């Protein structure tokens, strides 16, 4: 009789623990989703740009052909872009980088 009661209590404990673990996992996932959605709302839009190289100087232009910045190499260009637009993000197509002779492998 004692073994039967012990088995019932053990089974009840396992089921209760399993249910609580599931609820905790759902709360964690919901919190992560809320954080991701909050980041998307506050994160600035990414502006696409294209690069051109003339006389060893790299020029960056926006999609609407507006001038963004220039630099002698990609590091100097990146620095100039960050100085002019500290709160904006920019992206360049991999094909555009390859046309400049930069090998880029996206993750």
Describe what you observe in this structure:
The protein has 107 residues and is an alpha+beta fold. It has 2 domains: 1-43; 46-99. 54% of the residues lie in helices and 22% in strands. It has a 4-stranded mixed β-sheet. A hairpin with a 2-residue loop joins strand 1 and strand 2. The chain is rod-shaped. The mean pLDDT is 85.
Summarize the entry for a quick read.
With 107 residues, the protein is α+β, with helices and mostly antiparallel strands. Helix content is 54%, strand content 22%.
Defining traits:
alpha+beta; 4-stranded mixed β-sheet; 3 helices; rod-shaped
Question: Which blocks of ≥5 consecutive residues have pLDDT under 50?
Answer: none
Portion of residues in beta strands equals 15-25%
Structural class: alpha+beta
- Give the beta-strand count: 4
- How many structurally independent domains? 2
Helix content: 40-55%
SSE string, helices as H and strands as E: HEEEHEH
């Amino acid at each position: 009789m004692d073994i039967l009661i012990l088995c019932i209590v053990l089974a009840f404990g396992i089921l209760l623990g399993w249910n609580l673990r599931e609820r905790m996992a759902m709360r964690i996932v919901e919190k992560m989703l809320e954080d991701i959605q909050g980041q998307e709302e506050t994160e600035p839009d990414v502006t696409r740009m294209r690069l051109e190289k003339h006389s060893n100087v790299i020029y960056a232009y926006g999609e609407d052909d507006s001038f963004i910045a220039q630099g002698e190499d990609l590091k100097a260009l990146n620095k100039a872009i960050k100085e002019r637009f500290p709160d904006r993000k920019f992206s360049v197509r991999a094909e555009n980088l390859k046309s400049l002779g930069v090998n880029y492998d996206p993750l």
